[in-house]
Amino acid sequence: MGYPLYFGLDGAAPPPRSGAAHATIYPYGPFKAGDGGSVLLGVQNDREWKLFARVVLQRPELADDGRFAGNATRVAHRELIDEIATASFASITISELVRRLDEAGIANGRINDVHEVWNHPQLAARGRWDRVPIPGGEIPVLIPPGRRDADDVRLGPVPALGEHTRAILQELAYSDADIADLRAAKAI
Question: Can you give the pTM of this predicted structure?
Answer without folding.
Answer: 0.68
